[in-house]
Structure formats: C-alpha cells, structure tokens
Design brief:
The protein has about 400 residues and is an alpha/beta fold. It has helices at about 50-65, 85-95, 150-155, 190-195, 225-240, 255-270, 300-310, 315-330, 335-345, 350-365, 375-390; strands at about 1-5, 5-10, 25, 30-35, 75, 100-110, 110-120, 120-130, 145, 160-170, 180-185, 200-205, 255, 280, 290-295. The radius of gyration is 22 Å and the shape is globular. The two termini are about 40 Å apart.
C-alpha cells in the first residue's frame, strides 16, 4: 500500500514551488511519533499503560501497510520526550522534510488544560500536551508544558505539503478551539481534488472538555482511540474487516483522513467504556486538501521495500533476487538508483556505489524525493568520494 499526493499548483505557498509543467512529484510519507507512559513527576501525572505501545503500533502499521518512513530520530518515547526534545523534533522536521512530502505527527500521553477565570467568570481555556520532564502542576508552571496551539502553529509551517497531526490525550480537542482553526465538515470533493491542495489537519482522541481512555475493551494494549485508529488502517489495507466494514466508504480505492475519522469516531462512540468523542478539523495554513491513502499496490514499491528489508537484515541472496525483480519493473528514478547503490555496496564495488549515489544526490538536488535523508546522503557521498580518490577506483566502472 502507498499514499498518494500528486498535485498541481500555481503558487509557491506552503508545499513549495511547482515542478516543470506545474505538476509536483510524489514525495515521501513520513511518520514522527511521541509516546510517554512514565513521567518524572509521577506524583502529579500517573503512569499510563499504553502510550508507548500506541506509537509503536501506529508506526508499524503505517510503515508496513502504507509505505511510510519512520526514522529513529523522528521517534521520542519516555525519558527522551522532554519539552526541549519535542521542540527539537519540530526543528529537525523543518530541516529534513521536502516540499512534496507528507507528514503524520502523532502524540500519545497526558494532556492538560488551564481555565482562566476573571471576576468569577471563565474567560478562556488553554490546552497543553505534557512532556516527560515537567516538575510542577500546569496551573503553577504552564511554561513547563507545551501549548497545543503554539505547537500546531510551528508544525503548520513545516515545508511538507500534507500534514496530519494526531493527538491521543485528554483535552486534545483543545486543538480545535481558537480563532484560526475550523472544524472538519462533510467533504464532498473527490480524492483527486483533495490531493491538489495543501492540507493541515488534526485528529483528536477526545473533545476539548473530555478525558481520553488509556485502554479499550477490544484493545487492552492500546488506548481506545488508537486501537480503533490502527484497526481502521488495517481494515483499509486489507479491504475490509470481518464484518465487511472499511473506512473506504465510497469504495474508490482511496481512503481520505475524513473517511478514517468517520470510522474511528463511530467505533469509539459505540464502545461500552467510551466517555469520549474524537474530533477532526483543520488548522493554520490549511487549503482544504487532505492526505489520501490509496489502496492500489505499486509492484515496484512492494519489491523495493522487500529488497531494503532483506539488505538491512543481511539476507544477501534474497536481496539480490528481489532487487533484480524491482529493477526489471522500473529502471529509472530515485528508488532504482538507491537499489543500485545497495547492490554495489553488497558487491564491494565502490566505483559503482559512488556513481549511483551521485545520481541519487542529483535527483535530490532537483527536488525529487529520495529514500535517504539529506544529512546521511551528504555524509555518505563525501566518504565514498574520499575512498575512491585514495583507491583510484573507476567511478561507474567498478573498482
């Protein structure tokens, strides 16, 4: 399974400049996740059972069934998830994401709120997510917490074309309060229209004034919300559940975030333990687009993923076989260049590895999405250039 985001644009707003001919290429699909079960101030914030599991399951599902990338540097769990580190993750995403990319940003943990009362009347509320390193209650030290609206404003300005923020915490619906946000309505556009527009969407596990269950009767190892979120993704990937239900309500082979939200809201609402209602809407800089998941399998993408996994697990014979099959289907592009690079590394052919990596770098510089982050690509390129200069290998011809 893979996600799609082929778009046409006439502007250079969030999402980047248009490619030649006005069509922007399909970028990467990236997952960033934060999960906290155990807080340093355990006397203030009780330990959760499933937040880290929630991150793990959403990550695995998006990677396995929909071709998302989830680098370790984009995952923060437990003691790693300090306020500073979460801000740093947003900064890192700003550096790493490309204009055609698509991001799912997921948080599971405690949420908090402050109600401002003046003259006996409530005049406002502020929602927060709770980082692992808070030491005082939110009412005493709100600066230790991460204000949801401020976090969303920073995420909105990331260069990716489509951004979906998923918040699984108490009071997460505060993300849909405030002056610059709009609640999601019943979208009537076709998926092809939705993917032509920039999107900034947020899916929350509960309304602004609701608590969120840490477990569900059907999902003992996940929160009620995330359990049904993952189940919805799984059913979409498999074409339906045991009862034939699927988030792909119009059976067009594509699942919009609006359709996924409708599935999750229905299932959470019908759970016997549920005291929460998920919510969905848009935030700053949204242009009424959506990240859309297509259920049509690209044979090259499937073989590419299998080849990379075989390489990373040292299954050499399987890697050679699957990489060859993939290259027979598609010989040009970032994916094939990367497979040729991995093949050359396996063969010990530094010259061919350098030639393949240079081709990959040229594609990256031209704005094409490539299966390596920019820092790793630049570092590896310098290493191979130094190695070949010293060894005198013939670039592209073998050493």
């Amino acid at each position: 399974m893979t996600a799609v985001a082929q778009i046409q644009t006439r502007s250079e707003e969030i999402g980047g400049a248009p490619s030649k001919g006005g069509e922007v290429g399909q970028g990467r699909y990236v997952f960033a996740g934060i999960g906290i079960d155990t807080y340093q101030a355990g006397e203030i914030w009780k330990e959760l059972d499933n937040a880290v599991n929630d991150v793990v399951r959403v990550r695995e599902t998006l990677e396995k069934d929909f071709g998302f990338e989830a680098p370790e540097e984009f995952i923060l769990t437990e003691e790693e998830a300090t306020a500073s580190a979460i801000r740093g993750l947003v900064d890192r995403l700003r550096q790493e994401l490309q204009p055609d990319d698509n991001l799912v940003f997921f948080f599971a943990g405690h949420g908090a709120e402050i109600r401002d009362v003046v003259g006996g009347q409530e005049v406002g509320r502020t929602g927060f997510i709770v980082p692992v390193d808070v030491t005082l209650p939110v009412s005493q030290a709100p600066s230790q917490y991460l204000e949801i609206e401020t976090l969303l404003a920073a995420i909105a300005r990331l260069p990716a074309r489509h951004v979906l923020v998923i918040l699984d915490s108490c009071y997460s619906g505060m993300a849909l309060e405030g002056t610059f946000k709009t609640r999601g309505g019943g979208e009537t556009q076709q998926a092809k229209d939705l993917i032509q527009r920039v999107s900034r969407r947020v899916l929350t596990s509960a309304q602004a004034d609701q608590l969120a269950a840490d477990g569900g009767s059907d999902f003992p190892d996940n929160s009620l919300f995330t359990g049904w979120l993952v189940e919805g993704l799984r059913q979409a990937a498999q074409g339906g559940g045991e009862d034939g239900a699927t988030p792909d309500t119009d059976e067009d082979g594509m699942v919009t975030v609006t359709e996924l939200y409708g599935f999750v809201r229905s299932r959470v609402g019908s759970d016997s333990r549920s005291r929460q209602t998920p919510d969905f809407g848009a935030f700053e800089l949204d242009q009424r687009g959506e990240l859309v998941l297509t259920l049509e399998q690209d044979p090259f993408d499937a073989l590419f993923a299998d080849a990379v996994q075989a390489y990373e697990t040292d299954k050499v014979e399987q890697f050679y076989r699957v990489a060859e099959e993939a290259l027979e289907i598609r010989g040009q592009g970032a994916g094939p260049s990367y497979l040729r690079y991995l093949t050359a590394l396996t063969d010990g052919d530094d010259g061919l590895a350098l030639a393949s990596l240079r081709e990959l770098n040229q594609r990256a510089e031209a704005g094409e999405a490539v299966p390596m982050n920019s820092r790793a690509l630049a570092n590896r390129l310098r290493q191979l250039e130094r190695l070949c200069a010293k060894a005198g290998c013939e670039v592209g011809q073998g050493s």
